[in-house]
Each structure stands twice: as C-alpha cells, then as structure tokens.
C-alpha cells in the first residue's frame, strides 16, 4: 500500500491569523465535516489550504501505526505524521476522540487534549477538518522502486484580512497536485512574490514582499511558474495627510496674502482648513482662519514685522497634523536718519562707538543694518565705510595716536538706506612718552655731591613733557630708589652724599598719557676720606691678674673706604708715656705681662686707604688680683707605722689674703689626691700602710685663685705585722669524688707583709680548731664529717706578730654516694618492657640532684647503657617476644657514683596474632550462607584458632570458634542485615595448662539476606536483578560521610566569605 504522510505549514502574518496547508499523498483520503454536517472526502494527491484565526493548529486524528511530530525550521512550524520505526511495537490503538495538534510553541511530541474548531479558508464551505482513515491501513511497506516523473499543478488560495487605513494582512497557500504516485521525498524550495497596485487591475504592479519556504514533498522533475489571479481590496478611510506649508502671494506694509494646496484626503473629502499664526509674538499660535477656501488675506498688520504661520486640513474623520512653520514679514519705509554715534571708550589706537536705532522707529533694532563711515583729520580722502552690520556698536582699531577722526552713521532696512546722521569728531589718546637719555655727570665727582644732567626723550608720545623725575639708589640697598628731583629742568646737583659710596641714578618723564619707562642707569662712586673716631675699647672678657682682653667696634663713619688697620696705645698712669701694645686689622687684642690690681689707660684709632682718623676717648681698665706664690716643700715626721705629721710655711699672697691650703698625698708621685683643705699650716695623716713610701705637696688659695704647688716631700713608714687577710676561696673539683665527702680544699691570697716576711698561716675551722701551715696559699682540710657545714677563717704570721683574722666563709662537705634503687617492671609486652625504680619497699630518699644509669645485657654478655639521667621510668622497645633480658641500675650525684644493683631479669610476653581482613560472605541458598576469612600460619609452633562473632544491637554473639577458615551460617531471616567479624587466637602451653592469646578483631562485613531469584529463561536478566542494589561496607559508608562533611565545610566557607567578609 502507499505511504500516508501529511505535513502542515503555518505562515504567520500580522495578528494571530495563520494559513495551514494539509498535504494528502496518493492512496490516502482526507475527510472534512462541513457546516451542514455532511462529510466531504478528498482523495490524494491533493493540498487543502486552511486558516486558523488564533494561530493554533487544527486537531488531527492519527491513524494506527503513525505518529505526529512538530518540527520548527527557520521560523516555520510543521506537523509531520510519520510511521513508527520497525523496532516499535504498537500498543493499543488510541480512541478516536484523541487529537494531535500544534501550539504556538509546542514540544517535539504532544499529548492529545481536546482542541477548538477552526474555520476554513474564505470561499471554502469546509468546516474544521476531522481526519478519518476511510479504509484499513496495512503496515508501511518498504519503499517502492522509482516511478516515472510526475506532472505538477499549481493552485493558490489568497486571503486579505485585518484591513486598516494604511495596512492589510495578506495570506496565501500553495497546493500541489500530482497524477502519479510519489515514492521518494526531497526538499523543494518555493519563492513567493507579492505585488501591489493602487490603480486597479490594469495598473502597474510593484513587488512589496518575497519569501522562500521549504517543505517535504514528492520528487519532481520540473517546476512551472504561475501567477495567481488579481484580488482587489480597499483600505479604510482616515484623516487627511499633513498639508504643505502656505505660500506668500502678496504683501504690503499692513497686509499679507497667503495661498495653499490641499493634501491627500485619504478617502474622505476635505471640508475645511485651519490656519494659525503667532501674531508677531513667537511661541504661541492662535487661529486666524477656518474654512474651505485655499487663500486668505491678513490685514491691519504692523509694517516691517515678521509673522509665523502653520496649516492643517480637516475631513469627516478628523484633522491632520499641522504643516511645518513658515515665517513672512510685512514691508516698511526707509528708516529716518539715525542719531550720531556716541563715544563709549577711547584708547591710544582704538575708538569704541555705540548708537541707537533711528528716531521714531517702532520696529526692533535688530531688523536694521548700520553703516559707519570715518574721515581721518588731514588725510584728504573723505569718509570711508568702516563697519556694516546689525550690531549697534563697533570698535575701530589700528588708529593713530592723538589724532581727530570724524564719524557719521547710516541705517538700512529692506526698503532702503537712510540719510546720514550728524557728523561727530573724536580724538584718540596720546601715548606714553619714551624714556629720557641716560644721565651723565657735569664736573668732578666729589665726596659729598655731584652734578647730573640728561636729554629729553626722542619720542614724546604726541604731547609735551610735563616734568622729569630723578631717582637715586645706593648700590648696597639693592632695588630701593629715592626721588631727589621733580621738575621741568634737565639737570640737578645731588648733595648730602656719603664719601666712598656707590650710587645709581635714573630719570623718567611724565606726559598727558602717563609715566614713561626709566632711562638707563648711571653709576657713580664718591671719593673717600679718613675714618671718624672709634668708640673707647672695653673688656672682652673678665680681667685677669696679669693680662687684659680688649675689644672695640669699627668707627661709625669709615670715610668711604674699608678700615684696614687699628692702633691701641697704653699708659700705666697720667705721668708715664704711652706705649703701643697692638696694631692690626682685628677688633680684639690681649695685653699681657701686667701687674695684678693695677689700673691702665687705653686709646684706639682706625685707618683706611686715605690715612688714620683721630684717637678715641680714654678708657681705664684694672687688672684682677693674682693667686698666691708657690709654697715650699712640706716637712714630714713619722709618729707611728701608720701615721705621719706634715707642716709647711706661708708663701707670698700676691695682693690677696690666703684663705686655704691644699695638701695632696699619694703612694706615687704622679697620682696624688687632696687629703686636706683648710687654713692650718700642719696636718697629721693616719691609716697609712707600714713600710710604704708616700709623697705629698701643698698649694695656697686666695680670693684671686689657686697658687702653684710647692716642692714634693717624701717619707717611708716603719715595718709592722702583716696586713688583713682577704676572703679565702673554696676550690671545687680539686678533690677526687671518693674524698669529697670528708675533705675541703681552700685557697687564699697572700696579704701585705708590711716590711716583715710572712712565715706561716693559722686556719681556724669547726669549734675553734686551728691548723698552722707554712707559707703556702692553699690547703686541704681532711677527716671531716660528710654532708656537714664548716665556718673557716685564716690569719697570717710574720716576725712582728699575727695579722687579724679574715672574714669567715661557710663550706659544706659533700654527702656519700647514693645506693642503687629497686628496679621493677610495671608493664610487660611481646616487644617492650616498661621499667620503674625508686618506689619499692626499700625506698631511699631521692632528690633532684640524683641521676641514674640503667644498663642492659646484650647478646655478648656485656652491659650497655640504656638511660643516663634523672628519670624514674624507662620503656625498652624493639625486643623479641618470649625472651629473657637482664638489667642493672646505678645511682650517682655530686658526691660520686654509687654501686650497681643486683641483676634483675624480666621476660617479654608472646605476641598476639595479626588482625585479619574483613570476612567474605557468599549466600549459598535461601537459608544458607558461607563466611570465609584468610588463614594465618602457626606462630613459633603455636597453633592458631579463629573466633567468628555476629554483631547485633544487643552486642556480639560468638557463632564459631575453631581452626577452620570458613563457616556456614544458617537459620537467618530474609531481608535482614547481618554483620560478621573474626579474630585469630594463639594457643600455647603455660604452667602445665593451655593458654590462648587473642588478636584484634577484623573490620565487620555486612550481609543482607534476600530470597535468591530464579534465573530467567534463555539467560535474560529480569528487572529485579537489574534493580538490585549493592550494600555499602563500613569503609565505604565512612568515606561517603567524610566527603559529604568536606563539601558542606567548603560551602559554609564560601558563604561566610561572600556574605560576611565582602
């Protein structure tokens, strides 16, 4: 049988109107129910056009064995009905009331809900179609062989809808008929061209639309072009189009005649026109004419005035838009003569003029054009135009200074040119005069005056010079200028000058326009004279007994030259002659070799290059008192071995009474220090060292100062008993440890013998026990009590007696070495032993200073140190199982090492078996499963047994114990979970009995009991086996939890970063 295929193409135009083309292939029947209820059958091949008012697809009944599919390509939606694939097994046929249809945006496959009815294309009597298969349809056969090429007929259905005043919706369909049966499909393209004419069927058509569409159809050999019949339609009427602007026909001073043309009436005759104007006031329009005429005259207008107009047309459907605004002006008369221009501002080369509108003019001054003419005085060229424009002002530039110019003004409008205004005359200002010539001197430049002259400027600026100004400035004052002359003369005598001073002179002049620039500068220098008198000299510093420092200032008047020399003269009294004490350029000098307490007179004078000036006034200055003279050598007398009497004589006082004496004393001549200050002439020195040489000297002091030291006296004290002993020292580490508990080693420094050699020492310790030794500086006290404190002091002995005892020191003997502690093992393991000591029943007193030496016997029989320190526990690791080890311990402290303890023996335990892997479970039947685990080899001849436990909520139940590595578990309930774990045990003989050492349990294994499904026939898997879930182990479940917590932590961190931090 032939293949039944239908495709619907929707061409969407304006609004919701859509045309649907239903294609019926050969061998098929398309059934439509009409309005009167009759059924119309259309045999294929045929194309049936249909239209939907709301854009939806009509309902389509799909025959059995076919399926509908919505396709959208390049904006065109299609419903294609295709047979199912060969692999599809059809289910029950759908009921006839189920419908296939297309929404505006459908999914690829649609359900079958109820659908509204659709009207046919205008001109057709068809109701919305109901697709019914008229005869049974066999399954689709394979494609037949190619048939001969068919002929194609073209028919068109056209619709004009939604007609508005300026728009209409055009829609059409394309119908293809074929006499031969189609057996193959290929895409064929159709181009639709729409042409429009507004002059009837005989008018010229213009293409307004071209579109290219594709759809699936039978194979064609050729395509023939055809043109549809002409369809006519009329658009709706509306308001007129926007008219053109009015045109000016004629104008006078008081009237305007306007004329216009009518615009397109758009199907309704224009009945009137509306003309508006702004009454010569821009911005607001008012009605000036409303009627059916196309011409209007406005009267009683103002001359030379601009008016704006706009026009609108009106028919029965409304009023059009206003035309563009157009402006026309009335005519006017020639303006009267304007007023003469007024001077706004005059300059040296510019004149700024301004004027008003002509007198009596009522129009705006901006409608006038002005012409300004100018005549230069004495030029002989007459008036020339200098400005032409609408602005009421003008600035003329590049004029001659101090020159008169005549001006007149004309006014223009559209009617002509006015008569000239009255002539006015304005003069430019003169310019500033140029600078005078450089001043020059007349005659000789003297110390106190000079005569200066100058020439007038070359350019007087167009006016007479009114006065000259002469300024002077000292070269030292920089830019400070002072006026010394102001008048019309061109010379002046500058007096009251200072000798030897540099001056600068300049001159400038004044004219009507102002001050000129200054002339070039003349520099002069007055001659110098000898300087004036200096001020009296004065003390630069405080006066000394034998010298005076003088200071003076330069003279106020230096005579116009630099001071190069000063002379200072001195006299001891008015009767003595003056003598020169200083000559030079400085301002300070020191006069020496004077006598203390004397008054001296001084004079000073200055000199420059021209000579010396006069002396200054006399200055009297007195010297200060002097210190005493040098004392004589003091007299020394030894009273005892530790005291000496010193006396001295009174020196010269040098004009001031002696108030104090200073006595210096020391063991070295170069390092003496003051031991006495006072008015006495003798002193006794005590606390000296016997048999020692001392040096001393004396100086006197008065109100003027301190005199020189006198000669140095030397004395030696007699010999005596030894000096006091220094503090003895205890020698640490000099005594061997075995003797440190009963001996103390001492050391001391030898004291001063005081002139008599030391012969021995007395050592006192304990309860006044004294030991006498020879002349040594160290000694060891023996036979002392252990751990005892002794107080020790020492004294020296010579031929004259015994020295005093030294300060005592405290020394303590060390305690005896400690006894070894009791060693015990507090924790046994198969590879380690934890040892502890110091807590047994024979506990000894341990302090923080006691340390221990723990040793263990190795394989060779010698003991090696394991620990050396203050710890009381130690764990010996890396040992072998079930092995005996020997240990001994020793205690030691600062007193030495104690004896080793007896040998202690400890044995390690047996090692437990290694932990097993999780057992494996295999279900053998509905009520039988086998649990297996890995075997372990025997451990040093000891057998291995296994314990299998079943975990439940109440705890763990042992289900098996024995040497086997598997166990069959029965009597379990279906659809339940069971957890199994297993551990290995080591059996060995101990104390005549069988002992067992259990290892760690393996991880648990989960077993879910289910009914074993019966295998499907022919090896096909059932749905139950496909959906069977695999149970997770504990490790997998823990891994999933860790990953989930990690993801939650990352999300929380991102949220905190985004919401809180940012």
TrEMBL record:
Name of this chain's protein: Fibronectin type-III domain-containing protein
Alphabetized SUPFAM superfamilies for the sequence: Fibronectin type III (SSF49265)
Organism: Vombatus ursinus (Common wombat)
PANTHER family per UniProt: E3 UBIQUITIN-PROTEIN LIGASE TRIM36-RELATED (PTHR24099), FIBRONECTIN TYPE III DOMAIN CONTAINING 3C2-RELATED (PTHR24099:SF14)
Extent of Low complexity compositional bias: 126-135
Region (Disordered): 115-145, 415-441
UniProt keyword Zinc present: no
Keyword Transmembrane helix among UniProt keywords: yes
InterPro entries found in the cross-reference section: E3_ligase_FN3/SPRY, FN3_dom, FN3_sf, Ig-like_fold
Encoding gene (name): LOC114026495
